[in-house]
Amino acid sequence: MRLVTDMRQCPGCKIILPIKENIPYEGNLARYGVTSPECLALFNELLLKEYEYNRPILARFDAYGVQHPPYKEIQEKLKVSSRYIAASKQSVAIHLIALYLMLEKKLPLSDIPIIMNRILSSGIALENEVLITPKQLGDLNIAAVTKACNKEEHIQLAWLWNQSAWNAWQIYHDKVAQWYEKYGK
Question: Could you report the per-residue pLDDT of 44-58, keeping only the tens digit for each?
Fold first, then answer.
């Protein structure tokens, strides 16, 4: 039996959460292998809260996505297929584009899925792109948002989380704008 003090670090965002007995590590990871079961459970709790508040979930999903980038060594150790390792790189790029559209282009959240579908349908090719994960993935993570006491605080914290996640990838902001121009228009 594990003690309440047993903790596990998420391989993606590096958040440290108490280990949940009913969620074994092996076999219950997101398909990219860069999310701990506890972090993924926290994300699912956040999605439920969003539905309660009747808010779009896109913004929160994108911040979460860029804070769980590919880590090839971890993925290979977990025997994540090479197809999913490649997809995890594309996933980060797509989520960065969505954050760009929200935070820089200031598009309505309802418009972003349409653009994202167009980008994905265009056959966005990132095989030769190298995305080096920042050492720091942002000052805020999912835990900050889940501590909100009401709808207004939740919305405010979610947008701060988005901005924090976007800022962490600042070195790629120009590249993300180029991807949007090439694949999103």
Answer: 888 888 888 776 655
Helices 58-66 and 151-168, packing angle to 10 deg: 40
Q: Which residue has the tokens 């506890």?
A: 38
Give the closest residue to 142 by CA, choosing from 5, 17, 1, 6: 17
Q: How many CA atoms lie within 13 A of 159 on its CB side?
A: 11
- Given its phi and psi angles, is residue 123 left (phi above 0), alpha (psi -120 to 50 degrees) or beta? left
Q: What is the pTM of this model?
A: 0.87
Reduce the DSSP state of residue 28 to 3 states and report it. Answer: coil
Contact 144, 155 (CB under 8 A): no
Cβ(33)–Cβ(80) below 8 Å: yes
Helix ranges (H only) for the chain are 37-53, 58-66, 72-77, 82-103, 112-121, 142-146, 151-168, 173-179
